[in-house]
Amino acid sequence: xxxxxxxxxxxxxxxxxxxxxxxxxxxxxxxxxxxxxxxxxxxxxxxxxxxxxxxxxxxxxxxxxxxxxxxxxxxxxxxxxxxxxxxxxxxxxxxxxxxxxxxxxxxxxxxxxxxxxxxxxxxxxxxxxxxxxxxxxxxxxxxxxxxxxxxxxxxxxxxxxxxxxxxxxxxxxxxxxxxxxxxxxxxxxxxxxxxxxxxxxxxx
Length: 204
Fold this sequence. Notes:
This protein has 204 residues and is mainly alpha-helical. It is built from 3 helices and 2 strands; from the N terminus they run αααββ. The protein has helices at 2-10, 21-144, 170-175; strands at residues 181-182, 200-201. A two-stranded antiparallel ribbon has the order 1-2. The protein is rod-shaped. It starts with a helix and ends with a strand.
């Protein structure tokens, strides 16, 4: 009885102390809770950092892809502009060539017209010269002809040595039934003008 009282007074019991089994279990549970909380907080922070890194990487990839698409579009636009510039240059060159061709054609037409006019003038001058020469030859022949002695019709005069009458023109000779006269064969050939130079005058 004496021993029991001593134990109560000192606050101790045989075989035990402050850290009883119950108190030890409670402390262990509290420590585990605190440790889990700390570990969970640390794990949540690591997950947030990984998520942020993934989001940043995704944004970087998206921005790079967008920049690539913009660069490709710019390249296509530049190529289209270059092609348009080439087309404009080709069209301008074609228009210049067409204008040059039109000028050449106009110049060729004007030259051809001028040549035709000149040729016509030359022909007209030649025709006038031939007419003047024929008139002169006719006048000279008429002045050199002897008076007509035949009683035949017409104004021609009978030639000597059995030649036909000498008329002023081939028209008169033909009207009186005379002609053709061939150069080197008929002496009457020398009386008239061979206009076409074929060696025959007063053709009928």
